[in-house]
Task: structure prediction
Amino acid sequence: MKFVVAIDGPAAAGKGTLSRAVAERFGFAHLDTGALYRATAARVLAQGGDPADARAAAAAARALDPADLDRLDLRAAPVAEGASRVAAVPAVRAALLDFQRAFAAREGGAVLDGRDIGTVICPEADVKLFVTASPEVRAARRSAEIGQPYAEALAALRRRDARDAGRADAPMAAAPDAVLLDTSDLAIADAVALATALIDQKLTQARAPKAP
Ligand code: CDP
Result:
């Protein structure tokens, strides 16, 4: 059976942790789509290029290799910043589209997390979540995750949020039918429990025999 869970939201809102937990709970495959943009940026940076250079970014996205997703530098701050720059290039998004849709279409269920999954990549997703948290909470989490000073992390998140939400092509946005989940004051276990209940309900509906 095909079953797609789309999890979108701004940087460090908890999408990754929630997606991994949900994928494990239901035995679904998980794709962190941010890693595709991060790997594209890492490729450009490794070649001494500028992630804002549309031609270089598009070429890097087309040349992406599965091994790029295992690069050790993907979580580094300059790569995150570069990712939001390459992500604003329409040719980059176009180059990464088929891979994401094919991943979502696999048998056995898939969880994809990103910025445009519920709106552009999988508008027909069975479950859509938009995960948010206050900028201050997100900056504290990111600062702890990568060891970046808090003020720097906050400024970087704000810059990236503005770029991701403001771009013309596939801007970060909650789909009209997405369920909003604010994790500012929510423990991860509680966020997972809420998402699990929602998915359980949709799975039951999807498995129910159709009326003739
Ligand atoms: O982990 P974090 O939330 O900081 O970011 P990420 O999910 O790894 O995404 C890195 C960057 O890739 C974002 O700032 C977006 O610019 C871009 N991205 C996107 O445009 N569309 C997606 N579906 C996923 C990520």
Q: What stands out?
A: The beta strands are 4-8, 29-32, 110-114, 127-132, 179-182. Residues 4-207 form a domain with the Rossmann fold fold (CATH 3.40.50.300). The first strand starts at residue 4 and ends at 8. The chain has nine helices and five strands.
